[in-house]
């Protein structure tokens, strides 16, 4: 299924803040008469500000140091070199969603506010548009508002939502939802989950149980366990991802809110630090603001060109 085109224009638009900051800063740095140690420091600082991570910033600066100090580098050259550097850093970072099983079960996890429910809605919409029979499951039974929000998405995009209401056992919701997916011959079931409980340990134990229950009912499921990460959360988001991965063996990440930040470089840092594929990126709140993560398209949108 080729459901997610890489949406080049949308991504360019979404990453325009980060790209703008990089372009302006590079132009400012390389327009100075005097090039020297300060040029190198400033360059490194700009890359760290864009959230590319210190290692990537340092290795890039090493790569261009000699040319820059000799005054042989223009801002355009530097951006081209940055593009090449980031393409290397992101090798292997993109991976397709595995939607080949029938039904495919996608478990969506992440802290509250990361964009989890919105991502479930967008994913369901896209697959339904592609002709798939889709179900949503309201597994965040901790918050009544989360169930309402998913039900609104369901109404809006014409996808049934399996729900048991606030306070229900999320594993029981997941159980019902898998049963419904099998009975209704669905192609895809997307399971939303809670992002906060009384403690982190409770949350992880509950999510692990939901995952086990799904697997017991349908061999090989969930086929994807995706962590939704808000691109604006920086180091905190990376620490969260480690916890979720330890508890749930994630199959990939969804990076949201790339439109609201000048720190879009975080995709590079996340991949470097976690080694998990970034399967999808989100650049807004509309149903079609979700795209596959394609490193080539991403780098072009980030550095221009
Ligand atoms: P959840 O608590 O993890 O389920 O998060 P929600 O799906 O409720 O999203 C939290 C807020 O972020 C909502 O206002 C969403 O509309 C918004 N949101 C989600 N994804 C994106 C995105 O990619 N870009 C922007 N700008 N907003 C987003």
Write structural notes for this entry.
With 305 residues, this protein is of the alpha/beta class. It contains 12 helices and 8 strands. An 8-stranded mixed sheet has the order 3-2-4-1-5-6-7-8, with helices on both faces. α1 packs across α12 (295-303) and α6 (116-129) packs parallel to α7 (144-157). The mean pLDDT is 92. The protein is elongated. Helices cover 52% and strands 13% of the residues. α10 links the parallel β5 (224-230) and β6. The protein binds guanosine-5'-diphosphate. The site of guanosine-5'-diphosphate has 19 residues, from α6.
Topology (SSEs and partners):
Layout: H1 8-14, H2 16-30, H3 37-49, H4 54-69, H5 75-89, E1 104-109, H6 116-129, E2 134-139, H7 144-157, E3 161-162, H8 170-183, E4 188-193, H9 200-217, E5 224-230, H10 234-248, E6 252-256, H11 266-274, E7 278-282, E8 290-292, H12 295-303
Helix pairs in contact: 1-12, 2-3, 2-5, 3-4, 4-5, 5-12, 6-7, 8-9, 9-10, 10-11
Guanosine-5'-diphosphate binds at residues 110, 112-118, 149, 195, 256-257, 259-260, 282-285, 289.
Q: Per DSSP, what share of the residues sits in E-state strands of 2 or more residues? A: 5-15%
State the secondary-structure class.
Answer: alpha/beta
Helix % is 40-55%
Shape estimate: elongated
Q: How are the strands of the biggest sheet laid out side by side?
A: 3-2-4-1-5-6-7-8
**Radius of gyration of CA atoms, rounded to a whole number:** 21 Å
Which molecules other than protein and nucleic acid are bound? guanosine-5'-diphosphate
Largest sheet data: 8 strands, mixed
The mean pLDDT is 92
* Helix-strand pattern: HHHHHEHEHEHEHEHEHEEH
* Number of DSSP helical runs: 12
Distance between the termini: 29 Å
């Amino acid at each position: 299924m080729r459901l997610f085109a890489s949406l080049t224009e949308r991504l360019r638009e979404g990453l325009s803040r980060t790209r703008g900051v990089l372009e302006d800063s590079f132009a400012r740095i390389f327009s100075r008469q005097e090039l020297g140690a300060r040029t190198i420091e400033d360059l490194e600082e700009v890359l760290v500000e864009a959230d590319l991570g210190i290692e990537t910033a340092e290795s890039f600066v090493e790569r261009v140091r000699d040319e820059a100090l000799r005054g042989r580098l223009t801002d355009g050259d530097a951006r081209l070199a940055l593009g090449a550097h980031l393409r290397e850093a992101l090798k292997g970072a993109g991976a397709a969603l595995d939607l080949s099983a029938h039904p495919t079960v996608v478990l969506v996890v992440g802290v509250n506010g990361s964009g989890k429910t919105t991502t479930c809605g967008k994913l369901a919409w896209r697959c339904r548009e592609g002709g798939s029979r889709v179900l949503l499951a309201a597994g965040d039974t901790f918050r009544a508002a989360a169930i309402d929000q998913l039900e609104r998405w369901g109404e809006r995009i014409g996808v049934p939502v399996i729900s048991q209401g606030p306070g229900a056992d999320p594993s029981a919701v997941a159980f019902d939802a898998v049963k419904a997916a099998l009975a209704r011959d669905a192609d895809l079931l997307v399971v939303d989950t809670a992002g906060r409980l009384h403690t982190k340990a409770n949350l992880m134990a509950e999510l692990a149980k939901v995952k086990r229950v799904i697997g017991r009912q349908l061999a090989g499921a969930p086929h994807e366990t995706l962590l939704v990460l808000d691109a604006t959360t920086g180091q905190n988001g990376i620490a969260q991802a480690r916890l979720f991965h330890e508890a749930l063996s994630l199959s990939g990440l969804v990076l949201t809110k790339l439109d609201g930040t000048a720190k879009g470089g975080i995709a590079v840092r996340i991949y470097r630090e976690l080694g998990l594929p970034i399967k999808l990126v989100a650049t807004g709140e509309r149903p079609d603001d979700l795209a596959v993560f394609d490193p080539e398209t991403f780098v072009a949108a980030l550095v221009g060109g």
